[in-house]
């Protein structure tokens, strides 16, 4: 009985070991979440970001012409008006659909020149926000 169990377990460990090795290789080939880890909305938002927003917004904490998206979701944002707001999905959506509505303190009112109000559809804004939410 004991012998049979051991012989059955050995191949199991071999297979499990290979699976773990394969998973480790997969994750080390990319330093950020791969697209397959993102929801369909977030993946579409990432594509839109890469095409339209990347020039002014980083996702690695670097400040460009605009604030970074890293850690933005849920953070407290100081506005030029002196108010502060929580960057929840409502704020993020508004910032995308109407770029001049709230201006972040320390930044210029330039986003609208590239992304005029209304140029991003409701659906696209939802996808971008889903992507920004993954960058916490
Ligand atoms: C020409 C540069 C430029 C482009 C392109 C641009 N933005 Fe911006 N964006 C800014 C600047 C500058 C600010 C900060 C001033 C302000 O609030 O308008 C900003 C602010 C924001 C904010 C608020 C950030 C915060 O810290 O509260 C969001 C969200 C945002 N942009 C999303 C986007 C998205 C999504 C796109 C692409 C569809 C985009 N931006 C394209 C320049 C740009």
Q: If you had to describe this structure to a student in words, what would you say it looks like?
A:
The protein is mostly helical. It folds into two domains: 1-29; 39-133, Cytochrome Bc1 Complex, Chain D, domain 2. 48% of the residues lie in helices and 4% in strands. Strands 1-2 form a two-stranded antiparallel sheet. The longest helix is centred in the first third of the chain and has 27 residues, at 2-28. The radius of gyration is 22 Å and the shape is globular. The structure holds heme C. The site of heme C has 27 residues, from helix 3 and helix 4.
Strand content: under 5%
Number of helices: 5
CATH-level-4 superfamily name of the largest domain: Cytochrome c-like domain
As a percent range, the share of helical residues equals: 40-55%
Strand order of the largest sheet: 1-2
Ligands (ions, cofactors included): heme C
Average pLDDT, to the nearest integer? 85
SSE series: HHEEHHH
- What composes the largest sheet? 2 strands, antiparallel
